[in-house]
Specification:
This protein has helices spanning 12-22, 39-42, 57-67, 78-86, 88-93, 103-110, 112-121, 133-141, 168-183, 187-191, 246-259, 289-294, 299-307, and strands at residues 3-6, 28-32, 45-48, 72-75, 97-98, 129-130, 149-153, 163-165, 198-202, 207-215, 221-233, 236-243, 264-272, 275-282, 324-326. By secondary structure, the protein is an alpha/beta fold. The strands form three sheets. The protein has a six-stranded antiparallel beta sheet. Strands 3-2-1-4-5 form a five-stranded parallel beta sheet. Keywords: ATP-binding, Ligase, Nucleotide-binding.
Length: 334
Amino acid sequence: MNVMLTSVGRRAYMVKYFKEVLGNNGKVFVCNSDDKSIAFKYADEKVISPLIYDSNYIPFLLEYCKENRIDIVISLFDIDLLMLAKHKKQFEEIGTKVIVSDPSIVEVCNDKWKTYKFLTDNDFHAPMSFLDMNEVIEKISEGKLSYPIVVKPRYGCGSISVAIAYDEEDLRYLTKKANEDIANSYLKYESSVTTDKVIYQECLKGQEYGADIINDLTGKTQNVIVRKKLAMRSGETDIAQLVDEQNIKETLVRLGKTTKHIANMDCDIFMVNGIPYILEMNARFGGGYPFSHMGGCNLPKAIVEWAKGKTVDKDTISARTGITGYKEIYITEI
């Protein structure tokens, strides 16, 4: 079996995980829009692809998958997910299975306003969110909301331009800055569909958690692994402890059954006075997955087995609790 990871970026560990699973029974292929990817060092085969929004991107991938007999395609980047989800059937026609959720769920995850509406419409707790800065100012003057306020791109990822406003002056400046950052980054592509490019959220006070909601390839929820975030760096979990938080787990099992997403959904949660509030949903492997893997969960193996039509035992997608993991920084010569 051959596996291809698209928009692989710096997630070399995902290449290693899949190579361990495949052994001598397949290859791991990777692609990225440039060669500045450490994952290229570890993959069996690598290729530079057109940019995601280039009209040649999907035709390029289809041809590459056909030529190299790729069985599974998995994207590691939010923007890429929607593009692949919309062309999933074309890949199936050449014998390649794209491990991605339905476009409607990917859109809910990528658009933080749709995330908020989806969560509240389905009776999940989420931080109060707004698209209109003036509405935020009005709510604060009425005493229905208070500073600090989180200001961030509506279609953001990687903590780009996420900031906290402590007063109205901050709020206005950070709104202007967020719009400028969006215009000068890849966020401009997804953000182009709306004039409301910035979202405002109440700043929750509580313990932050991350989680992997694991569904099989038919969208049935199989398990939830929860980690307590102890330190963050550039929007990703740097230090975390795997924990048994039943309140969070029960909430996320219900979320997984509601989304019916495919494979992993990476979530951010705040526990406020014993109530789980869901902040973010990412329909892919997130930066916190290595902690689940460290604890014994092997989702890459499960995906490969499910793709073969085999059953996967619960131990394969479970993790030990009570252990703490630290990410390290290595310098690698290429």
